[in-house]
Structures are given as structure tokens and as C-alpha cells.
Design the sequence.
């Protein structure tokens, strides 16, 4: 071993796991040198634009494109009729349903894609789209999901007529998609019948939208000479896109080159495959020219991958001391006109069955009914970890409801019900094996940091003076890192992920991954993982993702899966490199491998510190002096199939003050403690937490995609859809505990979605807590001032003395 | 309506002339004719600020300015921020304080910060938040953007002393 200070210096220089490395992505972005899909410009490139339906439910009587086609600069107007001979007028969804690429005789939601216009530039394409005459016969529509399965409800999907077996269950009505049941119903019913106390609440998680700042888009370029297709696409999962495009188009997968260049935010909105991508591809193949399609903000909000829309009924059974005996949840899930939820194939409601949360609930039962309505398709997106936002919300709301009913403090009731550290690995009543956690430690730390007792005293004193102050807690458990291929696949491809490393002769390296960054800082953090594993400074390790020709196959970045899966692959591929390096070092030092020990960036002969070979030495030797029988080079690949999901957790506290005359909610304090296991880069983690909490704030305080009875979307631009500015956004204090995942190679759990998943409940619980003294147990989000004012007014709290 | 018009203006210190139809938006001229793709389009309706450029000494959203309005204008885009001596302090601040993630809002943020700090060289935190309120970010929660602008303010005022 070297002397301690020298050892420390080398470790510092390495820039490995745990250091506050500045981002390697930034240099290009801050100089305007990013390369997003809309920045791509190819010779002869045409532009596509959609004709969209003004009606939610209508029969298409005729489409007349003659005027549009007569406009100079217009090259084609595609309709379902044109796609039909190619069998591309419908496409499979990730959820086992099909979705119309272009409306086939009928539209099922407002803004549905009806025709695709291709023209010389985006102005002409937009003009031509306006000139396509579509004659509609308006049909009665289903806007309210509670009416979807009425006997006389209009049939939304005649294409499924007679198909009484869906992808996930039998169908009991023409607008029924699936019923998904988990848990022990009989035991749960029994526990409820015997319970000392039960509570029940109807809780709606409104329809919202992730709406990254870059909308979705694609550039398709078909090379007729070679029969090859290149597709630049706003995708979080480019490899999956390649496979699906190959299957849909019939092109050999090796002749499909998919590139996800820089992606301007994803949040799950860029997981799916959208009609615009398919139309751009078809147009490029048929016209033999590159075709670009970029949706605008209205199209993005109105037609692409909404989130949530879960109508939930939660019930808890407990004893008088607040110890929970059972949980029962029913969900009516509004999926819109097609079931295009971006879930792993076997999970029609995602991982909603994580809804027992951080609590030791022995018996539980969940039933989800998915229904069609005349609204845009989607449901799974927006930093949700596959419906974990909804799951976390229902349990974090219900435990507050129970606390209020029993008059038990909301922190105390959580402490009474937490799964205890010694219970891990913990098998939940709904089938998940939690890997590790220390929930009480996290909550206690937060309560102390915020002087919770003092806040409660202040609240009591303020209430006496007529002020409304709320304290919200959220002690959530996430489930991320999908996932074990036995239970998790996308269209049949297992949800592993991958890393491929090449160490070059002079001691730098390149590593490629199957994931795809959209702001998560992979270039920075993956290099840190590798630096620690292979002893090459992170500054000398290049990271690449997104090009399916060069990167190893992987399932992409969403569901906080990159660190749990590809991060694990990085560590394991790094260990393969190190194992080979050890053989080379032993050969160079003429000792046995057992005589060597690893020291930061080198192998040292045990007890003889000056007898050593650095990774730089070894890298060079790998290309000219390897031991007999060993192949030259220093490369490794790892495809990592995780043995389990990871279970990050956190304890959040939010304090709000509400103006009783205007309904304005002001967030005074937000304290977020996260436990994501091993922390790779604290700066990046904090950045993820700030961003996720701000999304949670937006969801709780204003985001919704409301529809009227005729299926009209009321507000599909940023004029109506709430995205907070720096002025509204609260300031956050962050904190952490570290409970490593026992099954992940470096103990990391993933963190991207925790703040959104856990944050929504904290904001919501704070607002409702402000009303708890007047008997209010629930108010549906969003807490816009007008909505809060309505509650204040109904309760007479806005009266001036 | 479709007759092209010649428009001459200065971008990042360079004089340019373009022939455009009257309805062409400045953001498209910058991105597609002048290949200055650092300026982004996020919403087409002046809400998000991803297209913010500096236009005759004011922050302007290029998605709602017609190119014909730019006759004789002096425009600075994100590509023109760094000088011969290196990055502009606002660029440095965003990197140092982790003020960006996906990078899509960043050029607009930088251009707004560049002008804002000339309007108010020593802003309080609240003033930064108000001053930057025309630019939306979905990734960062603004906390580090505020720090980045403050970093730049400190650096710029140290420079001017």
C-alpha cells in the first residue's frame, strides 16, 4: 500500500463513486451545440404534419385531399387507406392492444391523427393540413369512465367486436379492457369484517402530462439503394424502437438504424411509439426522401402519452391504536381510446401493487378495471415508475385518513406501521420482495430537522387565530429498476440492460450502454462507477448511448432503471476488465494472481508496495504482452438481468399556509430525505430531487387535462396547462440516509422518480392537513386557488369576521 | 403574402441577409437558414422561453417574432455568448451549479440570464426568480438555475471592479 496521503490523492484523481463530479454533458449544451432531433437537417428533407380530428368520437365519411395535393410543395397526403396495403394503418401497443396509426373509418378521441401531409417545409405542410377536407358523422361519446361500462354506452372500439379475451383478462363489456386482481380477497374481506376501525375514501388522481420541453419527433431517411432505414427519434428506448420498426416494416433489423440523439427531457413521455414516427417512416419509404415530423405543444399535450387518470377507492382496516390490519383498493383506470400504456407487458396496471407502501400490512387486495373512453391514449408516463405514483399516493393519503379518524398524529401512525429494518428482505402482501430499508430512521431524522413538534404547536396556535396551516408527510417506498426478465419484458424482450467497455492501449476507455440519457447525467455518473471499478479516471472514460448500431442492446431509460440495471452492468463489466487486468499484471510482475491486491488504480504485490502495475501499464500490455493463452485486448460486455427490483424510499415533509380568502396555497418549507442506497454523485442526486419535486408540485397544485362531456379537451396549450415558473416553485432542502441494496453490485437503488412519486403525496397531504381540524379527510388535486377557494367557501372558512 | 423580402440584421456580430416570406418566424430563420440550432422551439406560443434571444438589447422570444421585424436588428444567440477569452460567466455558472439537465431550455435560460444581469447586476434571489420567470424548465426545479445566475452575477461584478 502507498502512504495514506498519496493513496487519497490517487482516489481523488480517479473521480469515482461518491464524488461531486461536475457534469460532462454540459459543455455542448451551454454553447448551443446540442443535437436534438429537430436540429437534424438532411439534403432533400421533407416535413410532415397531421390533420387531426376536431371530434372525440365520429365516423369518417370522406377525406378529400385534392386541394391540399394541388398546393405547390405538397408531396403526399397519407390516410389509413394508403397505409392499409402495407398493413401499417394499425400498430401494436406496448400494452397488448392495437392503436390506429391513422384513423381507420372512425376517430376515438379529439386530436386523433387522421391524415399525414408531407411537404417541402413546415409552413406548407401546415397550410396543406388545413386544406384537407374531412367529413365526419359525430357519434355519442364516452367521456366519464364511470359510464364506460354502462349497458348502453357507445362502443368505442368496434375493431374489437366479439373479442371477449383481452391481453390481460376476459372482457366483460365492449369498453372493458381488463380486470387485474392481486392479493387475497377473502382474507382481506375477513380482516375488514373483524376490524375495530375501517376508513374509506374516493381519491382521483387526475389526468396530467409530463410535457418535457422538447416535444416528440422523428426524422426518417430511407436509403432505397441499400434498403436501409435510418431513424432519428426522441426516444428513451431506441433499441426497442428498432425492434418494433423492424417488425412493423418487415425490414431486416440490421438494416434499421435507430439513433436517439440528445433528448430534451422525457419523463416517460418518450417511451412509446407514436403515429408520427410511423408516418414519417412510411412517407420516407414511399417518397424516397428524408421526412421530418415534429409535433407542436398542443399536439403533444392532446395526443401523446398522458399520465395517471386513476379513479381510486381506498380502504384501510385497523385496530384502535392505528395498526393497519388490511388494505383494499379498487381502481377505475381511464386508458382513453386505445390501451397504449407503456408498461412491462405482464403488468396492465404497472407496479400498482406496491400500494402497501412502507407499511407492514399483512393482508391486502387490489382490483383494477381498465376501460376505454373517448380520450387520448396513454396513462403510464411522467416519472411514475409504472403506476407507483398512484400506488404511493393512495397509501400515503389513506394512512392520513386513518390517522385523522383515530386522532393519532400523522407521524406517529407511520412509525407504528413501518416495516422494521430487521424484517428485510420483506415479502409484501401483494407479492413484492422489498430488498432493504430503514424507514423509521429517515422519518425521525426529518421530524427532528424540521422541529415537527414545534410545527404542530404552531399549527394549533394558528388555527386558534383562524389561520390555515398544513403539515404534510410522505414516507414512501418506490419500486424501480425493472426488471428481472422472468417477470418484466417489453413486447417479449426481457428488461435487462447492458454495458460494453473497451480500454484503449494508452489507458483511456469508452463504454456504451443500452440506456438513454434525457438529462439524468449518465455520461457523468456511469464514468464514476467505472472509474471505481477499473481504476481509470472518470475523465478518461467516454460514455455513449443512443445509437443502436454501436451501443449494446438495452431496454432504455425510464422507471428509474438506468442505475439499477445498466449501472449494475457497468460495475460487472468493469469487474471483468479488472479480472483480466489482474492476469496481465501477474504476468508482468511474474507473481501469482493471488499475490496481488487492488489499490485504487493498480495491482500491488502484497507486502511489496513498490512492486506494482497501474491500469495504464496494464492497458498498454493488453495490446502487446499478455500471458500465454490469453487473448489480446481489454474489453468486456455485461448484460445484466437483475435478480430483483430495487426499493428506494424517502421521508418528505411539507408545510403550507393557505389564504382563507383567496385559496392560495403557499409552500413555506419542503424537506426531502431520500434513501437511494449507495450515492454515486450527490450533486446529480440533488438535481434529480429538485426536478422531481417540482413536477410533483405542478401535479398537486395545478396540472390537469380536463375533458367536457363531448370529449373536448379543455386546455391543451401552455396557456392552460400549468408548468410552474421559478416564481411559484418552492425551495427545497434535501437530506439522505444510505441503505444499500443488497443485491445490486454497488448497492445503488435509483433515484430519478422518487421525488415525484413521494412528493405528490407530501404536497397533497399538507393541503388537506390544513383542513383536518374541520373534518375534511380528502380533496382531489389539483389545488388551484379556485378549487381550494371552493372548499373554503363551502365550509364557510372564507367569511370575514 | 408569398413574396419574399430581403431582411438584413446582425447575428452574433456578423451581418446577414436573408430572403424570407413575411410570415416566417425569426426562430425558423435562425435555426433553418442560419443553422443556429442552439435556439430551441418548445411551445410556439411564447410561454416556455426556449427560443429566447437577445434582440436590440432586450430578451425576446423568437417563436413569436417575424423575421421581417428584424431589419437592422442586433441579435445575440447562445452561439454568440462565449468570447475569445472563453465561456461567458452565465455559461460557467450553469455548469458549476448544475443548472441544466436535458439542456433543452438552457440556451433560452442563458440568453435571459445574460440580459437580466445587465438589467440588474446584483439581484436578490427573489429578483432572479422573477427575472427568469419567462423561461420554463422541466428538469431542474430552478433551484440550481437561481444559483447559476447568482454565480454569474458574482463573477461579473468581480470582473467590473
Sequence:
Amino acid at each position: 500500500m502507498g502512504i495514506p496521503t498519496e493513496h487519497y490523492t490517487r482516489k481523488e484523481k480517479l473521480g469515482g463513486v461518491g464524488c461531486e463530479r461536475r457534469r460532462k454533458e454540459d459543455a455542448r449544451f451551454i454553447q448551443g451545440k446540442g443535437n436534438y432531433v429537430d436540429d437534424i437537417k438532411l439534403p432533400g428533407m421533407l416535413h410532415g404534419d397531421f390533420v387531426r380530428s376536431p371530434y372525440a368520437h365520429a365516423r369518417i365519411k370522406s377525406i378529400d385531399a385534392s386541394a391540399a395535393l394541388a398546393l405547390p410543395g405538397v408531396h403526399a397526403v397519407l390516410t389509413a387507406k394508403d397505409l392499409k396495403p402495407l398493413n401499417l394503418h394499425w400498430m401494436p401497443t406496448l400494452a397488448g392492444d392495437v392503436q390506429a396509426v391513422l384513423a381507420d373509418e372512425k376517430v376515438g378521441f379529439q386530436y386523433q391523427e387522421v391524415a399525414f401531409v408531407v411537404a417541402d417545409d413546415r409552413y406548407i405542410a401546415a397550410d396543406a393540413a388545413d386544406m384537407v377536407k374531412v367529413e365526419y358523422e359525430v357519434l355519442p361519446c364516452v367521456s366519464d369512465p364511470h359510464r364506460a361500462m354502462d349497458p348502453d354506452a357507445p362502443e368505442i372500439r368496434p375493431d374489437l367486436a366479439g373479442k371477449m379475451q383481452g391481453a390481460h383478462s376476459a372482457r366483460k363489456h365492449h369498453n372493458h379492457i381488463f380486470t387485474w386482481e392481486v392479493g387475497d380477497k377473502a382474507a382481506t374481506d375477513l380482516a375488514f369484517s373483524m376490524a375495530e376501525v375501517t376508513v374509506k375514501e374516493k381519491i382521483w388522481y387526475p389526468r396530467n402530462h409530463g410535457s418535457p420541453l422538447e416535444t416528440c419527433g422523428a426524422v426518417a431517411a430511407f436509403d432505397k439503394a441499400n434498403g436501409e432505414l435510418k431513424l432519428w427519434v426522441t426516444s428513451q428506448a431506441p433499441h426497442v424502437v428498432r425492434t418494433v420498426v423492424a417488425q412493423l416494416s418487415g425490414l431486416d433489423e440490421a438494416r434499421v438504424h435507430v439513433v436517439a440523439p440528445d433528448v430534451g427531457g422525457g419523463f416517460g413521455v418518450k417511451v412509446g411509439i407514436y403515429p408520427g414516427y410511423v408516418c414519417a417512416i412510411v412517407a420516407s419509404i414511399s417518397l424516397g426522401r428524408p421526412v421530418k415530423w415534429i409535433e407542436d405543444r398542443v399536439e403533444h399535450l392532446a395526443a401523446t402519452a398522458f399520465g395517471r387518470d386513476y379513479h381510486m377507492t381506498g380502504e384501510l382496516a385497523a385496530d384502535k391504536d392505528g395498526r393497519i390490519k388490511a388494505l383494499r383498493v379498487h381502481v377505475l383506470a381511464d386508458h382513453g381510446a386505445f390501451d397504449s400504456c407503456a408498461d412491462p407487458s405482464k403488468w396492465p396496471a404497472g407496479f400498482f401493487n406496491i400500494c402497501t407502501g412502507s407499511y407492514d400490512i399483512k393482508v391486502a387486495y387490489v382490483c383494477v378495471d381498465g376501460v376505454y373512453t373517448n380520450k387520448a391514449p396513454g396513462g403510464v408516463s411522467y416519472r411514475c415508475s409504472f403506476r407507483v405514483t398512484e400506488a404511493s399516493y393512495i397509501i400515503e393519503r389513506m394512512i392520513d385518513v386513518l390517522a385523522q379518524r383515530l386522532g393519532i398524529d400523522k407521524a406517529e401512525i407511520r412509525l407504528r406501521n413501518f416495516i422494521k429494518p430487521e424484517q428485510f428482505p420483506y415479502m409484501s402482501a401483494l407479492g413484492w420482495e422489498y430488498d432493504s430499508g430503514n424507514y423509521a430512521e429517515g422519518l425521525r431524522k426529518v421530524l427532528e430537522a424540521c422541529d415537527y413538534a414545534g410545527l404542530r404547536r404552531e399549527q394549533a396556535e394558528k388555527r386558534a387565530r383562524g389561520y390555515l396551516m398544513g403539515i404534510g408527510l410522505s414516507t414512501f417506498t418506490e419500486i424501480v429498476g425493472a426488471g428481472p426478465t422472468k417477470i418484466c419484458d417489453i413486447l417479449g424482450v426481457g428488461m435487462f440492460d447492458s454495458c460494453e467497455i473497451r480500454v484503449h492501449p494508452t489507458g483511456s476507455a469508452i463504454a456504451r450502454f443500452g440506456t438513454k440519457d434525457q438529462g439524468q447525467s449518465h455520461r457523468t455518473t456511469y464514468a464514476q462507477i467505472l472509474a471505481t471499478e477499473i481504476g481509470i479516471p472518470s475523465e478518461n472514460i467516454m460514455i455513449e448511448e443512443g445509437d443502436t448500431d454501436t451501443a449494446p442492446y438495452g431496454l432504455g431509460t425510464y422507471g428509474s432503471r438506468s442505475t439499477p440495471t445498466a449501472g449494475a452492468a457497468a460495475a460487472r463489466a468493469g469487474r471483468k476488465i479488472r479480472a483480466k487486468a489482474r492476469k496481465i499484471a501477474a504476468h508482468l510482475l511474474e507473481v501469482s494472481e493471488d499475490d496481488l491486491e487492488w489499490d485504487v488504480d493498480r495491482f500491488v504485490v502484497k507486502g511489496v508496495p513498490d512492486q506494482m502495475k497501474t491500469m495504464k501499464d496494464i492497458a498498454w500490455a493488453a495490446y502487446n504482452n499478455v500471458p500465454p493463452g490469453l487473448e489480446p485486448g481489454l474489453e468486456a460486455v455485461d448484460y445484466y438481468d437483475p435478480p430483483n427490483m430495487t426499493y428506494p424510499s424517502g421521508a418528505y415533509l411539507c408545510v403550507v399556509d393557505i389564504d382563507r380568502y383567496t385559496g392560495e396555497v403557499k409552500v413555506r418549507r419542503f424537506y426531502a430525505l431520500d434513501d437511494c442506497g449507495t450515492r454515486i454523485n450527490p450533486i446529480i442526486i440533488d438535481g434529480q430531487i429538485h426536478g422531481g419535486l417540482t413536477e410533483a408540485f405542478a401535479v398537486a397544485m395545478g396540472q390537469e387535462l380536463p375533458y367536457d362531456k363531448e370529449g373536448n379537451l379543455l386546455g391543451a396549450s401552455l396557456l392552460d396547462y400549468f408548468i410552474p415558473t421559478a416564481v411559484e416553485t418552492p425551495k427545497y432542502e434535501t437530506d439522505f440516509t444510505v441503505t444499500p441494496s443488497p443485491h445490486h453490485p454497488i448497492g445503488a437503488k435509483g433515484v430519478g422518480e422518487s421525488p415525484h412519486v413521494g412528493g405528490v403525496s407530501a404536497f397533497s397531504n399538507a393541503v388537506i392537513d390544513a383542513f383536518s381540524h374541520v373534518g375534511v379527510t380528502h380533496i382531489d388535486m389539483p389545488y388551484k386557488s379556485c378549487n381550494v377557494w371552493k372548499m373554503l367557501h363551502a365550509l364557510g372558512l372564507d367569511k370575514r369576521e | 403574402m408569398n413574396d419574399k423580402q430581403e431582411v438584413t440584421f446582425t447575428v452574433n456580430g456578423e451581418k446577414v441577409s436573408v430572403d424570407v416570406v413575411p410570415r416566417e418566424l425569426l426562430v425558423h430563420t435562425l435555426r433553418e437558414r442560419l443553422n443556429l440550432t442552439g435556439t430551441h422551439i418548445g411551445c410556439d406560443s411564447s410561454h416556455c422561453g426556449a427560443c429566447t434571444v437577445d434582440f436590440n438589447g432586450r430578451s425576446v422570444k423568437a417563436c413569436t417574432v417575424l423575421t421581417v421585424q428584424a431589419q437592422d436588428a442586433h441579435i445575440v444567440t447562445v452561439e454568440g455568448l462565449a468570447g475569445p477569452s472563453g465561456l461567458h460567466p452565465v455559461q460557467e455558472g450553469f455548469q458549476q451549479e448544475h443548472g441544466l439537465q436535458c439542456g433543452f431550455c438552457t440556451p433560452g435560460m442563458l440568453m435571459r440570464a445574460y440580459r437580466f444581469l445587465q438589467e440588474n447586476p446584483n439581484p436578490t434571489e427573489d429578483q432572479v426568480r422573477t427575472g427568469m420567470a419567462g423561461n420554463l424548465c422541466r428538469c431542474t426545479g430552478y433551484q440550481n438555475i437561481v444559483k447559476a445566475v447568482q454565480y454569474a452575477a458574482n463573477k461579473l461584478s468581480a470582473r467590473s471592479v
